Amino acid sequence: MEYNILLYYCYARIDDLEAYRDEHHLFCIENNIRGRIIVSSEGLNGTVSGLKEDCEKYMAYVKSDPRFADTEFKVDEHHEHAFAKINVRAKDEIVHSGLKHINPRLKTGKHLEPEEFRALKDEEDVVILDVRSNYEHELGHFKNAVRLDIDNFRDFPAKVSELAHLKEKKVLTYCTGGIKCEKASAFLLEQGFKDVYQLHGGIIKYGMEAGGEDFEGKCYVFDNRLAVEVNQVNPKIVSKCFVCGTASDRMVNCANPDCNEHVPICESCGWEMEGACSEVCKTHPQKRPYNGTGYYQKNTNGYNPYKGFYQKPNASKIKSVLHGKTHP
């Protein structure tokens, strides 16, 4: 396959936030990298796609900055771009948690490589904790994992009180790529949990390096694939079609943009409901055309890749920063 999809994050202090956001954005434009990237004073978080050679340039670019030299990329192959455009945003956090006081560089759970996680997960005194949102863990999760009723990761801190009875256990946290666990595991330690671990590289790396054993269902991803296979050892479907209730791990975003729920819908119901999750959504006047995938690309008419630059509209000045020296 000609394209790669990259998933990565790096906690590192960024003082020149606005200038770096512009520089990073411009590099992506000039190298045909597309996707979603968050730049914060606490680091980077991104999912991007591009031709393999362009992705190699991008990874080298990120790692050439000493602040991000130890960034670990999860690399997957794909037959096309997984995104239609590039979006680089400056935000308060690289993943919204409300735990701004936690610096994973200073405090976090013990990292477990995929094979270490696989060897430890079935021990008697171990609890596996999913820190993702409902629609993610309903599609797929580790066998016997504790799953919290949360709609967003920012709800996680308020739910930790429900886990108080597990404080003396070994708690193994996991998420899609590892970024949420950095703060989730640190927060558990802060709340008095004694022995906390995290799956380094998340579900994606576990599938690549440990065969995905005992991960049941599919893993929700934040690109146009929506869901990916993980388990090559003992796969199992755990989700059900939102419409008819039959077993289905086919993820769909409801065709009604005002709903846009992320739910499993089998292929038959997908066509019958025209990509909608209910009759109400099926008859919604703004319902999007259904093409069988359940992914709806945002309208890119009038898309300006330079939109959002802090130093706008003088893009030539930004280019001189990029080409004149490696980092502003």
Description:
This protein is of the alpha/beta class and 328 residues long. It has three domains: 3-94, Alpha-Beta Plaits, CATH 3.30.70.100; 110-219, 3-Layer(aba) Sandwich (Oxidized Rhodanese, domain 1), CATH 3.40.250; 239-293, no CATH class. 26% of the residues lie in helices and 22% in strands. The protein contains ten helices and 16 strands. The protein has helices at 17-30, 52-64, 114-120, 134-139, 156-159, 179-190, 202-210, 267-272, 279-282, 315-324; strands spanning 3-11, 34-40, 43-51, 74-78, 86-90, 110-112, 126-130, 140-142, 146-147, 170-174, 195-199, 215-217, 219-220, 227-228, 251-253, 262-264. A five-stranded mixed beta sheet has the order 4-1-3-2-5. It has a five-stranded parallel beta sheet with strand order 6-11-10-7-9. Strands 8-12 form a two-stranded antiparallel ribbon. A hairpin with a 6-residue loop joins strand 13 and strand 14.
Topology:
Elements (H helix, E strand, L loop, with lengths): L2 E9 L5 H14 L3 E7 L2 E9 H13 L9 E5 L7 E5 L19 E3 L1 H7 L5 E5 L3 H6 E3 L3 E2 L8 H4 L10 E5 L4 H12 L4 E5 L2 H9 L4 E3 L1 E2 L6 E2 L22 E3 L8 E3 L2 H6 L6 H4 L32 H10 L4
Parallel strand pairs: 2-5, 6-11, 7-9, 7-10, 10-11
Antiparallel strand pairs: 1-3, 1-4, 2-3, 8-12, 13-14, 15-16
Helix pairs in contact: 1-10, 3-7
